[in-house]
Design brief:
The protein is α+β, with helices and mostly antiparallel strands. The protein is built from 9 helices and 17 strands. The structure holds zinc ion.
């Protein structure tokens, strides 16, 4: 779990994924034939097939995590934020953040709030909103303005922990996918498939990297690896669970960004059954993945998502089950070993 810990604890807001790019290139360089980087920051690791016309498969995992940029530094040194991605503001109160300051420093700050002691009954009923939040980096106005520029990126700050089979950190969404791509690449060797393993940028702001990568690669089919909601917790009804921790990799039927190619859904389910890989089916009514970007790229691409179930998505305590992650890697490897066999004709 050392690599997953490093990936999760590293900062990479949408559009500011440079540190994740470095890790991905470092890990992929010994495993693939070549690595390309495009103009939006996607890193494409390519393992070529060796037959006459290998099937081109694009696999996407997004590097970015929900984050912010600084939009204002006030006279007292407090920062205001512009969000990059979907936040529930009440999960942000009293959290630590990292401001990647233009001065070159990583400044650990905190999201402050009014103490309960001085809240009015009205204050208590109100839900916080992102524009009202402020970050305190412990600097006064002049010092903050000297160190921090408008547009510097900000992410949540959290350390990784493990309890038995469960691992918890910020950014499990979606560093589990970067981990999956790297671990799967160590095990694939199918001369009939050229694998394009893409660490995508800017997924959290609208699947932007996946779309441009798919245009560039023009794959025959594509798979996005991402987390999905595991609402197997108190307060959610059985029909609202989406997925459950410990139930295996989730094979997505649809979400609000894509309807998975039915032939790929069948193929993945058959592979999982044949290889005894634990799996669950996933229907997600709201949310999207890079599969939506892949599908609309190239000249229209059959695509699917394989998901890692995750509790508390888009908070600093995103939690996944290690055997589920292993099942996701296993199914991706099986897919890449057999992808030349699937009939994708409509
Ligand atoms: Zn994600």
């Amino acid at each position: 779990m050392k690599l997953l810990k490093e990936l999760c604890e590293t900062y990479g807001a949408p559009g500011f994924e440079d540190r994740i790019r470095e890790i991905y290139r470092r890990e992929m360089a010994p495993l693939v034939d070549r690595i390309e980087t495009d103009g939006i920051g996607n890193v494409i690791a390519i393992k070529e097939g060796s037959t006459d016309s290998p099937v081109k498969v694009m696999v996407a995992g997004h590097m970015d995590e929900i984050g912010f940029v600084v939009k204002h530094v006030d006279d007292n040194g407090f920062l205001r934020l512009s969000p990059l991605g979907g936040f529930d503001a009440k999960t942000l109160i009293a959290k630590r953040v990292c401001v990647r300051a233009s001065s070159g420093e990583d400044l650990i700050g905190m999201i402050g709030s009014k103490p309960t002691h001085i809240m009015t009954p009205e204050d208590r009923k109100k839900m916080p909103t992102v524009p009202e939040l402020f970050v305190d980096v412990g600097l006064d106005g002049p010092a903050a303005r000297e160190t921090i520029e408008i547009g510097d990126s900000v992410t949540l700050h959290q350390s990784f922990s493990q309890n038995g089979n469960r691992v918890t950190c910020k950014s499990m969404d979606n560093r589990v996918s970067i981990y999956t791509l790297i671990e799967a690449t160590k095990r694939i060797d199918n001369p009939n498939v050229s694998a394009y393993l893409v660490a995508t940028s800017q997924e959290e702001v609208g699947l932007r990297g996946a779309m441009t990568a798919s245009h560039r690669i023009e794959p025959d089919c594509g798979i996005a690896i991402d987390v999905t909601l595991a609402c197997d917790t108190p307060g959610a009804k059985p029909d609202e669970q989406i997925s459950a921790l410990g139930g295996g990799v989730a094979i997505k039927v649809h979400d609000s960004s894509s309807i998975s190619c039915p032939q790929l859904v069948r193929f993945c389910r058959e592979l999982a059954r044949a290889k005894d890989i634990p799996f669950q089916m996933e229907v997600l009514t709201r949310g999207g993945t890079d599969a939506g970007g892949i599908q609309r790229g190239g000249s229209a691409v059959p695509a699917i998502t394989l998901s890692v179930p995750c509790r508390y998505v888009h908070t600093v305590v995103e939690t996944v089950d290690v055997p589920d992650l292993q099942a996701t890697i296993d199914l991706l490897v099986e897919f890449l070993n057999r992808a030349h066999e699937v009939d994708l004709s409509y």
